UniProtKB/TrEMBL annotation:
Keyword Transmembrane helix attached: yes
Keyword Oxidoreductase: no
Name this protein carries in UniProt: DUF2062 domain-containing protein
Signal peptide extent: none
Protein source organism: Geothermobacter ehrlichii
Length: 160
C-alpha cells in the first residue's frame, strides 16, 4: 500500500542514497551542508546545478550536495522563503512590501527590490545557520545511518 505514496517513496530513496554515499562522515557532512546552504538561497530552479558546481569547485561530494539542495522543494519553498523574507525585512527594519497602485515598470521594479533585498539578506542568515546545523547533524547521523539495513520494496510475485 505505501508503495503508491510517492512522497514516502521519495523520502526512502533519498535516505537510501544518503546511506550509500561514498566517503568519510566528514566528507559527506560537508557535502550535505553545502547543498543545504545553497538550497536556502533564493535560486529556485538552479539550485541543483549550483550545488553540483559548488561541490565540484570546493571538491566536496556532489551527490551529497545535490541531496542537500532538496531541503527546498515545492512543499517547503513557500515557508522557507517567507521566513527568509521576514528575517531580512526585520533586520533592515523595512515595512512589508505592498502592491503598487499602478502597474508601471518603475513601480514593479521598486516592488522587486523591496522584496529581493530582504529575501537575499535573510537567505544568507539562514544559509549560514543551515550550513552549521546540517554539518553537525549529518556528522552525528552518518555513522549511525551506515549500520542501518534498508529492505527492498515488496515486489509482486510474477505469474509464470
Amino acid at each position: 500500500m505505501y508503495r503508491r505514496w510517492g512522497f514516502v517513496r521519495l523520502l526512502k530513496l533519498l535516505f537510501i542514497r544518503f546511506v550509500r554515499l561514498k566517503g568519510t562522515p566528514h566528507e559527506v557532512s560537508r557535502g550535505i551542508a553545502l547543498g543545504i546552504a545553497i538550497g536556502l538561497t533564493p535560486t529556485f530552479g538552479f539550485q541543483m546545478l549550483l550545488g553540483a558546481l559548488a561541490a565540484w569547485i570546493l571538491r566536496e561530494s556532489k551527490v551529497a550536495a545535490i541531496l542537500g539542495v532538496w531541503i527546498t522543494n515545492p512543499v517547503t519553498a513557500p515557508f522557507i522563503y517567507a521566513l527568509e523574507y521576514e528575517t531580512g525585512r526585520t533586520m533592515l527594519q523595512m515595512e512589508h512590501a505592498r502592491l503598487p497602485a499602478e502597474f508601471t515598470f518603475e513601480a514593479l521594479s521598486r516592488l522587486g527590490w523591496d522584496v529581493l533585498v530582504p529575501l537575499c539578506l535573510g537567505s544568507l542568515v539562514w544559509a549560514m545557520i543551515g550550513w552549521i546545523l546540517a554539518y553537525y547533524f549529518c556528522l552525528q547521523l552518518a555513522p549511525l545511518a551506515r549500520r542501518i539495513h534498508i529492505s527492498r520494496w515488496p515486489r509482486p510475485k510474477r505469474k509464470t
